[in-house]
């Protein structure tokens, strides 16, 4: 970058250094907040139903509910890994 | 049975969290905005407040500052709940007077641990106050 003229260096210093950083620049903070809210509903209601089904003895539904919960956690981990700093 | 004031404007979050807390044996009372949360904390004297931060009328930070400034409510532990995961959000909540902080989506067992720690501490403080 030091080979660039001063104006070019200024532009280059403003560019994101990685794909992750570039994606973060594209995702407004409010959007990340808004994604966490429905994700919380998916996780929370699947856990609530698992508790309820277990209490009522409907064990047959639990594996399906656990799949929903696991998928929700995978999505949450993806968000944390990529957008934790925002 | 500890009485928990849940201040939350999102209907699904309210429904989900209140059901799970009631299942664990907590007595849950609900406010849907910050101003009502402050009024209910004053009138109902809950053992702990779960405070969403993004609330209508007055937000969770302002509501917490009001509770912590009130002689009758300052001892009530407040846990901030927010969907913002930045460390600055945590700092902002603690600066407002919140006793602890958790991020959404709520990890229920972690939240229960934080609540129990504060409820235990609050019991001990009350007993010490009575003994002095």
Helix amount of chain B = 40-55%
Largest interface: A-B, 23 and 18 residues
Whole-angstrom Rg of chain B: 14 Å
- Mean model confidence by pLDDT of chain A: 80
Succession of helices and strands of chain A: HHHH
Could you list the spans of chain B in which at least 5 consecutive residues all have pLDDT below 50? none
Class computed from helices, strands and strand pairing of chain A: mainly alpha
Major beta-sheet overview of chain B: 5 strands, parallel
Sheet with most strands: strand arrangement of chain B: 2-1-3-4-5
Describe this structure in words.
Helix content of chain A is 78%, strand content 0%. The mean pLDDT of chain A is 80. With 86 residues, chain A is an all-alpha fold. Chain A is rod-shaped and about 70 Å long. In chain A, helix 3 runs antiparallel to helix 4 (62-83). Chain A contains 4 helices and no strands. By secondary structure, chain B is an alpha/beta fold. Chain B is built from 5 helices and 5 strands; from the N terminus they run βαβαβαβαβα. A 5-stranded parallel beta sheet of chain B has the order 2-1-3-4-5, with helices on both faces. In chain B, helix 4 (87-95) links the parallel strand 4 (78-82) and strand 5 (100-103). The longest helix of chain B has 24 residues, at 108-131. Chain B is globular, with a radius of gyration of 14 Å. The mean pLDDT of chain B is 91. At the A-B interface, helix 3 and helix 4 of A face helix 1 of B.
List keywords for this structure.
heterodimer; A: 86 residues; mainly alpha; 4 helices; 0% strand; B: 132 residues; alpha/beta; five-stranded parallel β-sheet; 5 helices; 51% helix
